[in-house]
Write a structure and sequence with these properties.
Blueprint: H1 2-22, H2 35-56, H3 66-97, H4 107-134
Helix pairs in contact: 1-3, 2-4, 3-4
Protein name: DUF3180 domain-containing protein
Transmembrane segments: 5-23, 72-99, 111-131
Pfam family, one: DUF3180
């Protein structure tokens, strides 16, 4: 968990510095930017549910190959790190634009996009962490 927090803080600080230096020359961020992130997060949550049921051997499910579980665990780890980086970036954008909505014409729209991105990325992080937990081997 500390590794994800450190990724979020480092990326957030770097993005904030970039925004402080070049915000006026950047294009406005569309509010729909985070839809794909939300979709991937929801798919990972569904995959975690299916994987957990298959590993438990519930009726109506097929056994799952150990290599498939290992691949899903690697995907979950990678997703968690990417989500932490995105959370840092969206948080930096929100922290920079929210107090400056009156200063720049695009700051209000960017703050909205950052809030939506933060929410979508939280779903992605949850999906990664839940899938990672579902792939753990339980002692029997």
């Amino acid at each position: 968990m500390w590794d994800l927090l450190s990724v979020a803080v480092v990326v957030g600080a770097a993005v904030y510095l970039l925004l402080w230096w070049r915000y006026q020359s950047l294009p406005q961020i569309p509010p729909t930017t985070s839809l794909s992130v939300l979709l991937v997060g929801l798919i990972e949550l569904q995959t975690a549910s299916l994987t957990k049921r298959r590993l438990a051997g519930r009726p109506g499910t097929r056994p799952i190959l150990p290599l498939t579980v290992a691949r899903l665990a690697a995907l979950a780890k990678a997703t968690s790190v990417v989500a932490a980086a995105l959370i840092g970036g969206w948080t930096a954008l929100l922290a920079y634009t929210a107090p400056r909505t009156g200063d720049f014409g695009t700051a209000g729209g960017d703050a909205l996009a950052a809030g939506l991105g933060l929410a979508a990325t939280a779903v992605l992080l949850a999906g990664g962490l839940v899938l990672e937990r579902a792939c753990r081997i339980r002692d029997r």
